[in-house]
Amino acid sequence: MSRISLDYDAFESTPVAEKPFPHVVVPHFIGNDDLKAVVSDLPAMKSGGSFPPEALKLTPRVAGMIAELQGPKLKALVSEKFGLDLADAPTMLTMRGRTREKDGRIHRDSEAKLVTILLYLNPRGEDWASRDGCLRLLNGPDDVEDFDVEVTPAEGTLLVFPNGPATWHGHRQFVGTRYAIQLNYMATGRKARYELRRHRLSALVKRLPFSG
């Protein structure tokens, strides 16, 4: 079992883009060879929705990558990059394997989520040529075509942005396989504690049906 290498240097050297809201996009945060290895190891997620890693049977390679993503190194780099104090922020991580018709609608993430990190684990292929399923960072809440940045959800691309009142995002309707990891650094208030409790409960509920 080989360890997955994450390109922290690329993250450090990528400046924060300010439009339509502060964010960083890092292509190939996971290199091509490592990405192939991860994709071959990913668990089957035959239905839509988010799955806590505790609800899935993970190979040691994928489990190790997830543990590193939740570790102190990435958190420290994100803190420095965006000038945030995340030292005491709990982490919440989920995995997705399929996108449904209802997914991708324009939204902002919960205010309980201080920072959103998305890591895309799909090969670049014909699925994304139509731009359906490509995440768009939007100028407002009303039109998915009114975007400033479009992120192809492939090739180990990493997207990081602090959440705020104008962090609208979404994508055109896409139905099919679309592997992604979402990591959030959470606030410590009541709403965040509720979301973390719900996250843990979801892991328990989903563990049996999706243990394969």
TrEMBL record:
All residue ranges annotated as the Prolyl 4-hydroxylase alpha subunit Fe(2+) 2OG dioxygenase domain in the record: 106-185
Gene3D superfamilies from the UniProt entry: q2cbj1_9rhob like domain
Pfam families, per the entry: 2OG-FeII_Oxy_3 (PF13640)
Highest taxon, organism lineage: Bacteria
Listed name of the protein: Prolyl 4-hydroxylase alpha subunit Fe(2+) 2OG dioxygenase domain-containing protein
Organism, as annotated: Gluconobacter kanchanaburiensis NBRC 103587
Lineage: Bacteria, Pseudomonadati, Pseudomonadota, Alphaproteobacteria, Acetobacterales
